[in-house]
Every structure is written in structure tokens, then in C-alpha cells.
Amino acid sequence: MPIDWAATQANLGLALQVLRERESDTARLEGAASAFKAALIVFRDAKADYPTQQTERALQRVQTSINQQKNRKVAHY
After folding, report:
1. What superkingdom does the record give (predicted)?
2. Which one-letter DSSP state was computed for residue 40?
3. How far is CA 26 from the centre of its chain?
4. I want to staple 43 with a disulfide (CB 3.0 to 4.6 A). Which of 52, 62, 65, 74 is the partner?
5. From its phi and psi, is residue 34 left (phi > 0), alpha (psi between -120 and 50) or beta?
């Protein structure tokens, strides 16, 4: 059941994103990005448009957060 696996990966990405709110590093966000990317491969192959769009948006939010966090660290030096 590839779609079920991809949905689980997308949910994992969301969970990691929420957990990251309690931490200051990007490790959880990077894990979330990896989970979203893995889910996208399956969703795209299955031509599952709605899950693909939702996961792409979630990945974009996570990548934006990663970039912001990295920029904050650079600004502090």
C-alpha cells in the first residue's frame, strides 16, 4: 500500500514539525523535510493530486522555517 505509506510519512513530517516548536535547532525540521520528500515521490507516482499539493505546501513551510532558523544563527555571529 504505497499511498498508505506515503500518508504515514506525511503525518510523520507534520509530527516532527510540531515537535520542533519546542526546540531551537533544525534537526526535527530536517527530518520533517525528509519525510515530506519521501511521501511526495509516492504521491506523484500515484498521481494523487490533492495529497501531493498538501505535502508540497507543508514541505515549503518546513524549508522556509529551516532557512529562517539558519539565517538567525548566522545573524548572531
Report:
1. Bacteria
2. H
3. 12
4. 52
5. alpha
The string of DSSP letters for 7-30 reads HHHHHHHHHHHHHHTT-SSSHHHH
CB-based contact 4:39 (threshold 8 Å): no
Number of domains in the chain: 1
DSSP 42: H
Query: Is the separation of the CB atoms in 35 and 6 below 8 Å?
Result: no
Cell of 13: 513530517
Q: Domain range spanning residue 54?
A: 2-75
Question: pLDDT in tens for each of the 77 residues of the chain?
Answer: 899 999 999 999 999 988 887 777 789 999 999 999 999 999 999 999 999 999 999 999 999 999 988 887 666 65
For residues 62 and 13, is the Cβ–Cβ distance under 8 A? yes
